[in-house]
């Protein structure tokens, strides 16, 4: 079974061109560019002898016949300002492996590009709904920061839908290749990471409501300043989490929206995102308790209203031993001494697919550990080594 | 000289109706509603025998003949979500006093509604440019938070301009009536405040630049999180300012803009507003030093880029003794024992006009001290007492 590196790289760059902005890509879920990319992918699947299938939320499958097959892939939607490899690498590597398998009369390999992995409306929304982690009715109510709903998003590609949701039972397993999006492989000058587990994630919006008022005539001691409430919450939270976290635990306030957001007005309201990740469910739960208690304490101290949004989350997931072993042996053959087993700090569609079948993941290095950023990149030789490891593992399975 | 309370209240409510939203008003500088209100005001001036005059930035005057006259007024633009009396009270009270003066054959009283007092593009921009505090060329470069320039804003009413800037020398003095926008008069159940001085203000944008990166795979110790930089700056600043401020000193972070502002991305950049006010220039300067040093320190500690925007500011101003005394005597006559002398924590157009003529200000209470808010309100009897104090003082001058 012999994948074609040049054909693979050409396809990868062709996808990159759709929504390209400088060195990066802007192709958020259900945007014109995202839909254009999925139509192009469907054509690529057809050319490779795979039957394109769009499910009701826009997950795009390339099916290797009606019988059982191994599923491989990732996602082709991007962050608002995304890199060119995040998701795209796993989809195009899967396509090349499927091509090579067909050419070699090897195992049946189907390909998938899940929709809204980057969480414009939720967290890995497309694979979550497909895997039954959230009902479609429930997901339809999710809103993006621009106020649009998931229902409105998926309606933009309703004309492409092939039919209902595919039965996961038709797939014998799932392998997702992805860039590491972290600094570990690059720092160690290694080429491949065989994932052992994926960390769990919790994400919710928190709103603090005070009183917007004149910034010149309202004495400091009479203010109910929502931004000061947020800053106070952030400081207390950082102090308190130190007691429960591990070095690999992360937490982030990435979105902040002040109201009315004028320089001469004491902020009356702030809505912000609170996201935290760790490999252990217990720790995630302990962190949630501290977050809720700290917010309640700050709100009470400052006379602020407090509202918690719905909490989105995914549990930590362990990779399948057999698939993981096949990837490890292929890694040692293709990149002897230059690979490692490692957990994934990033969330992936694999987390959801694991509800229905054995799963595994393969990482290639991210230069400087940079991702979710226009500068995101990986050395071409590492992209190809990753492809070869995948092909070798699939042939061995 | 006898002002007509009902005629005054009717005019005030007629102005309120232009851009009314619930109990509040949305009439930001150069918006359709702001321009509509100024056209309506010009008609009111004409009916009162005052000659309407729009200057190049949209400041609207109602001139009592070509000879010397006393200027009275305030502004008719509002905050993005403004109250119905902020600015409007001073303009309509001035108009009623001008009407009463004409009817009684009293002193010549001209009226003005300055443009962009609320600082959509700067700080009291219209009166600043008229008074020569900033060149028109310079002001044209100011931008609003929606990215539009002052030049684009004033171009929206270019068709109304009557001619060049009026010579301030034609006016013998300026009196501005305004709601207090603070809690002092209302708390003390007093009806009138005679202003002794107006605090100075400093306002600038600060930008901290780090590295936007994946919120799941970037270890906490490797992050250059711009929001964490802002929170750290805010905490250190609050601690350090305690040593130089007085109870009446205020400082505010009212505008915050994160980039890219996604819940799964470590924030790579934050731009925020830093505004501070006090009655003494020396203290304002000491605060500026602490603000700049603290920002530089936080940026250095966290490896963040730091950029200070242009600093807008106005110096503290003392009211004219003679005008102030006339208002004080009228206040004692109209509201015996229910008035006080007090500083203004809010900035007003009077600050700029003071460069060219004697100035004074009169306050009426704000219920609950609430302002820059739809709930802003004042008891009707207090609105009328303020009107009567103005008329009596003008007659006595």
From TrEMBL, chains A, B:
The keyword Hydrolase belongs to this UniProt entry's keyword annotation: yes
NCBIfam families per record: hydantase
UniProt entry tagged with the keyword S-adenosyl-L-methionine: no
InterPro entries according to UniProt: Amidase_Cbmase, Bact_exopeptidase_dim_dom, Peptidase_M20
Family stated for the protein in its record: Belongs to the peptidase M20 family.
Name of a matching Pfam family: Peptidase_M20
Quaternary structure, from the entry: Homodimer.
Molecular function GO terms recorded: hydrolase activity
Species: Allgaiera indica
Cofactor: Mn(2+)
Alphabetized UniProt keyword annotations: Hydrolase, Manganese, Metal-binding
Name of the protein in its database record: N-carbamoyl-L-amino-acid hydrolase
